[in-house]
Amino acid sequence: MNRQHVFGCTAALLGALASPAHAVPQLLQGQIGGAAVVMELNVAQDGKTDGRYFYRKYHRDIALDGQRGTDGSVALGENLGYNESRTDLTLRPDGKGGWKGVWRGKKGSAQTVTLSPLAVTSLPTSDIASLAKLRQQHPYEFSRLADLTLQQGNLQHFGRYTLRWWKEPISKVRFFRVVDGYPAAVQDRVNRVLESRQWEEVNGYFGCALGGAHRGEFEYDQTVTPRYLTDRVLSASVFTSYDCGGAHPDFGDQPINLDVQTGHQLQLEDVLWLGQGAPNIPRDADGYPQNYDYQNKVLGPWLAKTLLQLYPKLMAPKDKDDDCDYRSSGLWALPSWYLLPQGLYLGPSFPRVARACEYPEWSILPWKLVKQHRGDPGLSLP
């Protein structure tokens, strides 16, 4: 299972935007009636038109689907359901790179629409890594987030560290920052990573909302749990349950595991390495393995064997009707993982029919065993 936190609904949309049948998405800003909006519009060579827009006051995407007419105008429906056909918005080119038209509500009320190109260079810059990347790659999504702010929440004491929680009020995505326990430079480095990740998750919320727009509802619930903090590592789980308009609801944990001295995301082989010599898994620019030979041939079989030795009763199904059989090596080839005071937690990946078997509480490798297979000798472990 691919645990990357990209919802199928959003991925499908971005795939459409990248399709050769579409021109470069047009980024627009303007007004519908007296309300400020930002729109992304895609008109394909065959005239099929889609896109999305949001009111600056509300930030929630409205999906657009329609067709270009022979006169160059486009007729668009908003948040159309399956096999639904309706025109809510009619736009005509204004000869200056923008559009003019009319929006009609369900009760027949009409509002004038004016849209002009929104240059990426006019957007504010950001020193938050995830927002800076969005500004470059998906400026529409950056525009949707640019004027949102975080609300300060409660303090939490976690061992010798003090955490401050922050919430984005629309998505309700909550993340912590470390406000005491690290030297100032380390603390700043860690908090910049945590802030960047929080905005990634906020953007994930809006992507999920767009996916559910066609049926008028969606669900998105996220819990961030600090798991382990030391002077060298920070580990936290980021567990999300979501229903974004796809065939099925889904859930997943995509933990944060940081080397606090560098601010870099740790790879599992930094903590647990079963290969020869130093860890040498080739990865792409986004940190994903270029092949999975090590995971499939070494990691998965070793974990299945070792966990069976540690937890023989828990690894086997309780009875013939129990789908939770953890003994297959394939379940452990691409585990989710984070660090705990007692050891390395590993979560298996099951097929959808048995997803309820994922994230057992017991699947922990004790530190004593992990240290025998340490990937980074400089990574201090208990």
Which features does this protein show?
single chain, 382 residues, alpha+beta, Lipocalin, Heat Shock Protein 90, eight-stranded antiparallel β-barrel, five-stranded antiparallel sheet, 19 strands, 22% helix, 32% strand, elongated, disordered N terminus
How much helix, percentage-wise, in residues? Answer: 10-25%
How much of the sequence is in beta strands? 25-35%
Q: What is the averaged pLDDT score?
A: 91
Q: How many domains would you count in the coordinates?
A: 3
The counted number of beta strands is 19
Keywords: Signal
Signal peptide: 1-23
Structure explained in plain terms:
Keywords: Signal. With 382 residues, the chain is α+β, with helices and mostly antiparallel strands. The protein folds into 3 domains: 111 residues, Lipocalin, CATH 2.40.128; 144 residues, Heat Shock Protein 90; 116 residues, no CATH class. Helix content is 22%, strand content 32%. It contains 8 helices and 19 strands. The strands form 4 sheets. Strands 1-2-3-4-5-6-7-8 form an 8-stranded antiparallel barrel. Strands 12, 13, 14, 15 and 16 form a 5-stranded antiparallel beta sheet that branches. It has a 3-stranded antiparallel beta sheet with strand order 9-10-11. Helix 2 crosses helix 3. The longest helix has 28 residues. 31% of the residues are buried. The N terminus is likely disordered.
